Amino acid sequence: xxxxxxxxxxTSVATIPAIENVxxxxxxxxKNGHKVAVVVSAMAGVTNQLVAYCSEISQIFxxxxxxxxxxxGEQVTSGLLALALQKRGIPARxxxxxxxxxxxDKVHGKARIQAIDSKTLKESVMSGDVxxxxxxxxxxxxxxxxxxxxxxxxxxxxxVAAALKADRCDIYTDVxxxxxxxxxxxSHSRKIDKISYEEMLEMASVGAKVLQTRSVELxxxxxxxxxxxxxxxxxxxxxxxxxxxxDEDNIVEQEVVSGITHSxxxxxxxxxxxxxxxxxxxxxxxxxxxxxxxVDMIVQNLSPDHKNTDxxxxxxxxxxxxxxxxxxxxxxxLPGMRIESSADVAKISIIGIGMRSHVGVAQKMFRTxxxxxxxxxxxxxxxxxxxxxxxxxxxxxAVRSLHTAYGLDDGS
Amino acid sequence: xxxxxxxxxxTSVATIPAIENVxxxxxxxxKNGHKVAVVVSAMAGVTNQLVAYCSEISQIFxxxxxxxxxxxGEQVTSGLLALALQKRGIPARxxxxxxxxxxxDKVHGKARIQAIDSKTLKESVMSGDVxxxxxxxxxxxxxxxxxxxxxxxxxxxxxVAAALKADRCDIYTDVxxxxxxxxxxxSHSRKIDKISYEEMLEMASVGAKVLQTRSVELxxxxxxxxxxxxxxxxxxxxxxxxxxxxDEDNIVEQEVVSGITHSxxxxxxxxxxxxxxxxxxxxxxxxxxxxxxxVDMIVQNLSPDHKNTDxxxxxxxxxxxxxxxxxxxxxxxLPGMRIESSADVAKISIIGIGMRSHVGVAQKMFRTxxxxxxxxxxxxxxxxxxxxxxxxxxxxxAVRSLHTAYGLDDGS
Lengths: 412, 412
Description:
The structure is a homodimer of 412-residue chains.
Chain A: E1 3-8, H1 16-31, E2 35-40, H2 46-57, H3 63-70, H4 72-87, E3 92-95, E4 102-104, E5 113-116, H5 119-126, E6 130-134, E7 137-139, E8 145-147, H6 152-163, E9 168-173, E10 194-196, H7 197-205, H8 213-222, E11 226-230, E12 243-246, E13 259-263, E14 266-275, H9 280-290, E15 298-302, E16 308-316, H10 320-331, E17 338-342, E18 345-351, H11 361-371, E19 378-382, E20 385-391, H12 395-405
Parallel strand pairs in A: 1-2, 1-9, 2-6, 3-6, 9-11, 10-12
Antiparallel strand pairs in A: 4-5, 7-8, 11-12, 13-18, 14-16, 14-17, 15-16, 18-20, 19-20
Helix pairs in contact in A: 1-4, 6-8, 7-8, 9-10, 11-12
């Protein structure tokens, strides 16, 4: 018996029957003796429709009005789920962001939660009412509606769990948990039972789309145990059927590598014949930052003639045309510079806390890829992650080979 | 130059192009030098969809959650119209009921406005911002969302106009104003230029569906000049193209009869052989009131044998089956009672302030109908209205004949 925060995403509340299914899961937790707060997203498709309305009026819009429009989707689901719970005899009420209130900064469209006034909310939950909280939304100190950006309901849920000092935050989604690799590519991939915050954070940031990166950061900071599980399978209340994201101290058997991720959202840009003088990188990256283009992997090398440098980096594939436009303008100031680009790349990453204490983990990656004849174009590393850029055609081969090489295959 | 409140209903904001059209009308008023507050309904169809979601979950729902769900529709339109105005270079912001705040009582689903804290709103409007207010919604003193019932946005607009001490409240709708009779029935009907609050109130309550009855009551109480006009024709800013609802003192040439209305939403019930003793009417009408059935016209007569009474009354046609069910239960306590009913009736009303000072107005109605061979089943009167119940088949004939008889035909 404890206090749980359950979060249900858009596909979990896409229709009235889906909402009824969610109500059944909540009812099961109540029957298990738990106090429950629920955080809901908008019905799948609704947010896209609302965004499309805004865009139809104007491409450049006042983010405050955008937020007022888009936040309405979660308002609907929170009321509907409260009704579905009441039908089951469970006292429940909806809470909008402004009713809690969940206070955010004023960066409309991608606001950050600053404070949750949990007193009234907690009293309501402890009295036995299920609180059904509209995710994704908050309110500024001057009373305007904000939204937290795509996937923001995950962050709402973790923040509510932290504020209520909940025993666990269960993120219900359309997959059964976090996998050692994408099951659509690696049939032998396994659901991970426990993973550390640090690993989850790296995974979220390199292609595992199961949790919003910021929600993992917040869970790590506030030490909120998070479980990722499917809203479409297995009864609630069964013994942790999903993946538990926790402090690494709670993970007894540490794998060297916990998971392999891949991302096809990258494009590679190489600038050749850059003058090897201070300030060149700034000349390239400042205008890209101004254009809100997020540059990821960066490597710089002396060119073969040792007079100039070559600079390679990746950008989101969708931003490649804009990137090339910006660089064309830059090239006027850097005569001789040659721009090469390719959208034909994939980023493969291995992630694991065990890397810290094991040597040769990266080498095994390079050797495995080399044995399959896969050419590595760029390498970046962090303390618990190695990422490589390879030709996109080799994505599946690379992921499968690495999955086997690190002993992650089911049954291995 | 003054302060105007403009209200746009669901069909006026049904699509993004429709919202752009509304923005043009608002822009025209701004160009005329007016300060403007706008009240908007939900996009046509949206409220019905939201109500359907609630009903799909449960027929008996917590009105507080119903209100949270249903109020979201107006939130969307207020944000979208603010965006469309901004695109035209007009500073604008959306206001939800809770942001103003518009405080209501706690009768969720059909709440009444108790107070509008207009200070901040008025400051914003007087500074030149267009306030785009979500209609139909308010907030209780304990912070829950309420809605005002169907057509409630009219009432929102009039209440905002009263709170802001606006010079006029323009209700944009899909008709050009209030007509002497339904133009679909009487081709010679005329748009009324000015009508008194009292007449409008009677017309709204007997079938002219152009304004919510409560909004007229409020306008009359607060002396808010209201104009009804079309959002699809005539440029805003032209000289009062619609119907102006004002104090009768402002109407110079008073017609004896201002308009003829008809309603096919009635059904007639006759109870025969009721014992002629005190308390019988209560035995009949109390259970109907308990079943939330709104009884309208009532007449009681001694039966031919002078021992019993006959009781005739009308109920909304949609409620006839429920009415008969209730009466069947009642009949067990009133042995001998016979129930007759007919849905085949229409209520025709003549309305006019001039009736007060003219004699023979009702007689002319009865004579006109008699000349056409139309049998009158029930008559009720008020100070400025006479209503008769007739066989439904004669509806058009009755309305046209009366329209001619009272000199209302265009060109007459």
